[in-house]
Amino acid sequence: MRQFKGDKKVIIMFLIPAFAFIFIFLLYPLIRTFYNSLFYILQNTNPRYVGLGNYQKLITDAGMITAVWNTLIFMVAAVVIEVGVGTLLAILVNFIKRGAKFFRVVYVFPVVVSAAALGLLFSLIYNYRLGLLNTIVSWLGYNPIRWITRDSALWAVIAPVTWRYVGFYFVIILTAITKIPKTLYESADIEGASRLQKTRHITLPLIFSDIRISIIIAITGVTKVFSMIWIITQGGPMNSSQVLGTYLYSVTFQRRLFGYGSTIAVFIVLFGLLLVVLTNKLLKSDDNGGYGTPGM
Amino acid sequence: MMDKFKKIFVKSNIGRFFIYVFLIFWALTTIAPLVWVLNNSFKDTDQIMDSPFGFAESLNWANYQKAVERVDIIRSYINSFIMSGSATILVLLFGGMAAYILGRFEFRFKKFFTTIVALGLLIPAFSTIIPVYDLMIKLNLINTYPALILPHVASNLIFAIFVLSSYMSSLPDSIEEAAIVDGANRFQIFTKIIIPMSRPALATVAIFSFLWSYNDLFSALILVSDRSVRPIVVLLNEVSSRYGVDYGLQAAAVVLTIVPIFLVYLLLQDYIVKGLARQGSVKE
Fold first, then answer.
1. What SS3 state is found at A46?
2. Global confidence as pTM
């Protein structure tokens, strides 16, 4: 677009507020976090330079190793459940006419509700004495079960978090499916193709790039999980359901180790970047093989 | 064998039947817990014990009374609306302004600014919270509304600028040119033409800025945890850790948080669904 005299002033005036916010509350703190990660800081007083000491601690910290390992398991579950079930539901809803709108409304709702509220809801569901699960168990005539133990806690938080996001990927994939030209299906119908054949040969190839993006969002999204886990288990018992976000919170704001907390934060940023690069690379190479993706 | 199976399963009504079974099953995973918690919020602990699946015989409001009197849930509602509402208004204003420039002008350092916005998408709240917390302590803002509003504005501006600038750049040039011929200045063009024409994108940004701000437990726990300023999500965390044995109170707190969101959701679902689908393309 062309510019006129005086537009320079407008450009500056209009950009200043937004970028002032971004610099002060995003970029400066990010850089500061990198700097802080080189110090031992208890609470926020008397920083003591320790060089890469915090990073040495990071790679041997059992809590951190658990958090990273749990995050990786979480990512696999996120791809399988969130993207997998979301895609399946989208394909199935696209087959039906009656009730499609109802299912859309119901599936998307958990995405919108506060994770904190759903977290509290699930801790009620898991409750030993009065929870929904144990009510069903004792109604079936069995003894009540402890749902959150060291062995089960990770799955007890993975289930509600992944369940909540199914609706998100459902919407992304359903939107992609509705963009496929109807004529493609019509000509397949003329040739007598079954639902399964149409799905395999028309729908799936045409939504492949959307599935790819969904997988990338699902994997990187796991590094941001916090609320539900914090309310249901606080990362416990004994760190067994700790993920990156909850571990950062407990190290920084419960044990008040601000320097080491910053090191974990740096790790989360670099880990996130690595994931974006890796997932893009891995999934892009598939793009040209096997699936012909016309026009994409 | 496989072909026969396919014929029966996929082509006939049996296929349709199983499709519905699965769709209804998944719908129940959402509906059943909500109905269950709503029902139990009207019972006291004994009634939940005696007949966990029985419907509440009468509407017993005791749990809700407790939520209002003991944990002051209304105060938290007001706090949430003030903080998330202010953050949303500022995001629309500043995000709209920056998006107008980045979407419709060419200038020397444009690339620099668009790169910063793209980078911003990769900065999680975890990586900025400690210096932000420090800053708020230094400014004496901890446990005041701005402590949460300011960082929320910054992080939501990124998404806002992304969505708004791409929408604004798609608006036709001719309208703006006609306004200039008529003697309008850039400021008038922005307020009278660009903003009204961008209404659908602004609605998407408003809804998601508000929701993200309203739902963010992590920053709120750290910056505004005091009873007088805590938003609803911090109250829920408090209820879960401190009133863990009071089952009815917890159920009532869940219902009180979900019901307003449910009503807003029913009203705005088309916008919300479109906005969610858009987020898929933002990351592309």
1. strand
2. 0.90
Give how many domains chain B has, as a whole number.
2
Within-domain flag for B47: yes
Distance from CA of B208 to the nearest CA of A (A): 9
Q: Nearest-CA neighbor of B96 among B168, B154, B146? A: B168
To the nearest whole angstrom, how far is the Cα of A189 from the nearest Cα of chain B? 12
d(CA A74, CA A244): 11
The reply to whether B275 falls in a domain is no
Do B144 and B31 fall into the same domain?
A: no
Query: Two tokens at A250?
Result: 């407990």
Distance CA B42, CA A167 (A): 29
Top-level CATH class of A41-288? Answer: mainly alpha
Residue A257, strand partner residues: A42
Q: Are B175 and B51 part of one and the same domain? A: no
Q: Which of A131, A121, A133 is nearest to A161 (CA)?
A: A121
Query: Considering only alpha carbons, which residue of chain B is nearest residue A26?
Result: B128
**CA A166, CA A138: separation in Å to the nearest integer?**
29
Q: Answer yes or no: do A249 and B221 touch at CB < 8 A.
A: yes
**Average pLDDT of the residues of chain B:** 88
The answer to whether A66 contacts chain B (CB < 8 Å) is no
User: Could you tell me the residue range of the domain that residue B158 belongs to?
Assistant: 73-242
Kindly compute the dihedral angle of the four CA atoms of residues A238, A243, A246, A248, in this order, to the nearest 10 degrees: 100
Under an 8 A CB cutoff, do B127 and A28 touch? no
Please check whether residues B143 and B91 belong to one and the same domain: yes
Contacts B31 to A, Cβ<8 Å: 106
Decide if A85 and B233 are in contact by the 8 Å CB cutoff.
Answer: no
Please check whether residues B57 and B79 belong to one and the same domain.
no
Q: B220 lies in a domain?
A: yes
Residues B40 and B99 in one domain: no
Cβ-nearest to B130 among A22, A25, A258: A258
Q: How sure is the predictor about A294, in pLDDT bands with cuts at 50, 70 and 90?
A: very low
Using one digit for the tens of pLDDT, what is the confidence trace for A214-224? 998 899 889 99
Mean of pLDDT values over A133-154: 91
- pLDDT tens sequence across B200-258: 999 989 998 998 999 999 999 999 999 999 999 999 999 988 887 788 889 999 999 99
List, for residues A246-259, the tens digit of each pLDDT value.
Answer: 999 999 999 999 99
Whether B39 contacts B55, CB under 8 Å: yes
